[in-house]
Amino acid sequence: MSRPIHSAPRRRATAAGCAVLLFAALASGTASAADPTPSPSATTPSASGDTGLAGLDPRITEIMRKPDYRNAQWGLLQTDPDNGRVVHSLFPEQFFIPGSTAKLISVSGPWHTLGADHRFVTPLYAVGARDGATLTGDLDLVAQGDLTMGGRTRPDGTVAYTDLDHTYANDFPGATLTPENPLAGIDLLARQVRDSGITRVDGDVIVDSRLFLPDPELVPTPTPLIVNDNLIDLLTTPGDRPGADARLDWRPKVAPYQVTSAVKTVAAGKPTAVTVTATDGGTRIRLTGTIAADSAPLLRTSPIGDPAGFGRVALIEALERAGVHVTADPTGPNPVGRLPHDYAGRPRVAAYTSPPYAQYAKLILKVSHNLGANLGICLLAVTAKSDQCPAGFPVLADFLDQAGVDREQAQLMDGRGGNPADRATPQVLVQMLAYWQRTPDARLFREALPILGVDGLLAENCRSCPARGKVFAKTGAAVGGDALNDRLAVGAITIAGYLDKGGGRFDTFYAGVNGASTPGADPTEVLAITNDLAMIAAYLQESS
């Protein structure tokens, strides 16, 4: 399978308080690469099925004809899936940069292939000889691609999320943590080992990550074992007065990770600017900068450089807390050379069972979870008995063929919709949405999407408008820099999902703009465009 060609180093555009759409940042310059088409001024149908702007709510045409979009390209498609009638259509077969609306496709594949009720069972085997409470040998944790390992599971078995996820904390102010213990699954495994009667391991703990090989072309890169999204959370709170040291809390606390802070509290209204640096393979983390006295707690993250090694140490420490002593050095290497060929005949002494996959899909779609979307490609590869993540794409292609989705109207090199090569037509996304309406999981899939004015990345939009709670949609964006004009190149802002038209009718829809620009370089100016797309969705729902 071919690999993407990377251009200049990536430049992220961030937007303060952007709980509307998250940006799949593309390489600088790619935002202007949308395929050119005429300005959306046509008012009569075309050979490609366009209905133009005729019949659209005037509030929508007013948005599209703003001077801000004079060089941009709009796409629109709304259909009644009960009879296939096209309600509105504008360039439905034109390729657009999809941003995270590509997740509608990449999440659908694992959902169908694994099943909504699929649960990941991560086993822990005793490899060696046991004499009473002592195991002379190793405990091998066999990673199974569980996205959260219990770190977000509520007491009722559902998966917790916040409207602005911690995975975006370095890009967007306002990201918050869920209250669940990120080491919950690891702790449960340790308690099960103790309950099995083992209190001493004369040997080692090994994380078996042979399920699939991490593919660096998928960014963020999935790994077979994932704890806390492979991130260390760093929460800074102002001190008692200006000049005082800021307070710091971090999680999950696992050796050999060490975190220090030199962040100072400054007067209310002064700038808050915290920088995170990591050395020694990411295990030495230091925060510097300032936080205003009136600032809310500020969340930042630092990547876990070796997820398997991290999981090994976390499990050894959890075993000690549970009353199981391991003689191996907790901070030593993960000795994969000691792994057996297979585990036939080896006793399973513990296992962590995940919530159903539909809960993970909901997390991915609600918060635009990039790691989870890319992980789905690797999981599809595993179903094809391959440890190479790119082998997941043919599995996804087969599913789309079976679902009646014209996959030649999509171009994907990842699961998140963030590769510069990714493209999708309005028609292919609407076909994907229509497929789910013909399945028993129709409602489950629809309600896994962000809901306008209610939750996920649409929580803060349209909270008082008539369409609140009646638009279920995945959002997407691609934003890069325009150094030539000292502004931002908005490659795409998109939205696609369902419109509750009443009486049990849910129209499928797509709306998107490619090739827009902000007036200046302030990232908050992108919010005006994201709000325009949210309002177009609202007006489509409100229109008869």
TrEMBL record:
It holds the Pfam family Peptidase_S13. Residues 1-33 form the signal peptide. Residues 32-51 have a biased composition (Low complexity). Keywords: Carboxypeptidase, Hydrolase, Protease, Signal. Residues 32-55 are annotated as: Disordered. One of its GO terms (molecular function) is carboxypeptidase activity. NCBIfam families: PBP4 (TIGR00666). Belongs to the peptidase S13 family. This is D-alanyl-D-alanine carboxypeptidase/D-alanyl-D-alanine-endopeptidase.
